[in-house]
Amino acid sequence: MKRWTQSFWDWIEERTGISRVVRGLLTEYYVPANLNVWYTMGSILLVCFVIQIITGILLLVYYVPQTSKAFESVKFITSTVPFGWFIRRMHAMTANLFVFVLFLHMLSTLFMGSYKKPREVQWITGLLLFALVLVEALSGYLLPWSQLSYWATTVATNSVGSIPLIGEKLVVWLRGTPKVSQYTLGRFFAMHVSFIPFTILVVIGIHLLFMRLTGISAPPGTDKSKVPKVPFYPHMVMKDLASIFVFLAVLMLLIFHYPQFAFPHDALIPANPLETPLHIKPEWYFLANYQTLKLVPNEFLGILVQLLAGLFLFFLPFIDRSPERRPLKRPLFTTLATLGVLAYIALAIWGHFS
Ligand code: HEM
Known about the structure:
- The protein has one domain (33-283): Cytochrome Bc1 Complex, Chain C (Up-down Bundle), CATH 1.20.810.
- It has 13 helices and 2 strands.
- It has helices spanning 2-16, 18-25, 41-60, 70-79, 84-111, 120-142, 147-159, 167-175, 182-214, 232-257, 287-295, 299-319, 331-353; strands at residues 30-32, 229-231.
- A two-stranded antiparallel sheet has the order 1-2.
- It is globular.
- The relative contact order is 0.14.
- The mean pLDDT is 96.
- Protoporphyrin IX containing FE binds next to helix 3, helix 5, helix 6 and helix 9.
């Protein structure tokens, strides 16, 4: 048996030289020995992406993107297909945790100053990934064609209507028709299963390529040239796996004990375009944006404020150019960023209870 596997490996090796590639990626790739737990968030995000692709493909086996059949098809998946309920819960719950870990990854790189020169491309591609994952979540929300799907999409697409001159046209362009309809479901489905996941894959590739080109940073306050180096495998792989197992444990806990978190009441009722539910709220990660739109008197102004905040984050590595990365040595930045995060959380809680 061993001889057979060995000769198979030799056959591959002779034609590809793959062991050199694997060595370059794992055992001969050196990283600082003192990388902390925040450096493992990226690997959890990769796991999230893989889970979404696998569970998404399995859901596609039975899902039907037609307004008259979509809800029935997801009901069939949940109640009849073996382990269908598990796959569906896993897809919906991982979507939530994906966004949550994205926040952790983004905030840790923000506070550790990892966005600074020479890692501007990682930061910008990261922001792009954040936006793409949010659009992916939003487009997926419509697919089950439940009351929640229908009305949350109606509200979300309505908000762009406030943009002067082009707003109304933009809403129809997004929906395909003046109201959320089969055309909306068709285009959201196409974006959700092909265009956006493919784009995310390409951007992850650029994000990681640049991480290899610039090298990963060392934690703030340590001099990278003096910190001892260890091979990525086994040292960093073990650290990554420890975080991934904690993540999977939390995911299973939520799937088995708190499924209602991903499937509230209105997610269990088929869409009815003639009956607006009493309380229609977006997902938790859009609550702060939703509350901002409610607070600012002019909805367009609300959108503009959020666009400007996004633009500011985009240019942050070019605005904040000092090489200092230690949070306590840049008190102005750390205070403003902490206040920003607290305001964001406060807006989300306010949005939830309002
Ligand atoms: C699908 C989403 C994402 C994936 C799969 C991903 C993956 C990764 C991985 C594997 C690393 C290297 C290890 C680590 O520091 O965790 C990394 C580094 C980095 N990421 Fe991401 N990331 C994503 C989104 C983001 C976002 C939203 C941002 C910020 C806006 C971001 C900014 C960065 C930065 C600045 C680094 C360099 C860290 C350093 O060298 O210290 N990433 N990412």
